[in-house]
Amino acid sequence: MITLIGILCIGIVQAQNNVEEIAEKLAQEQLDAYNNRNIEAFLKPYADNVKVFNFPNEFQYEGKENMRSRYQNMFANSPDLHCNLVKRMVMGNTVIDQEEVIRKKGDPVFHAIAIYKIIEGKIAEVYFISK
């Protein structure tokens, strides 16, 4: 009995680690694409019906195509755009990134927290906190 319980616990831990690895990988993929200003690579980790909010629950928009329209011009017109990852926490299917964003050299740094919720292998929800 103890052996069966031990095997089940190991399986649960391995499954949890796999979920966290996937979540972190998706968050990093979109961050790398953001910094490269590559709209197609940026959108790839997101679910087609991704929902974006201002934290805690102020709905902003839904869908990859809405996301595309918001980011495509910014990428094309912001050669200095860069996001520095200050700190990342991963728990289960949720990734929390503390970020410093440079929009234009010489402008003040923009501070933000992005919370990514991963469902079925895609970023399904994003919550932003900024100052």
TrEMBL record:
<protein>
    <submittedName>
        <fullName>Steroid delta-isomerase domain protein</fullName>
    </submittedName>
</protein>
<dbReference type="InterPro" id="IPR037401">
    <property type="entry name" value="SnoaL-like"/>
</dbReference>
<dbReference type="InterPro" id="IPR008317">
    <property type="entry name" value="UCP030561"/>
</dbReference>
<dbReference type="Pfam" id="PF12680">
    <property type="entry name" value="SnoaL_2"/>
</dbReference>
<feature type="domain" description="SnoaL-like">
    <location>
        <begin position="28"/>
        <end position="126"/>
    </location>
</feature>
<dbReference type="GO" id="GO:0016853">
    <property type="term" value="F:isomerase activity"/>
</dbReference>
<dbReference type="InterPro" id="IPR032710">
    <property type="entry name" value="NTF2-like_dom_sf"/>
</dbReference>
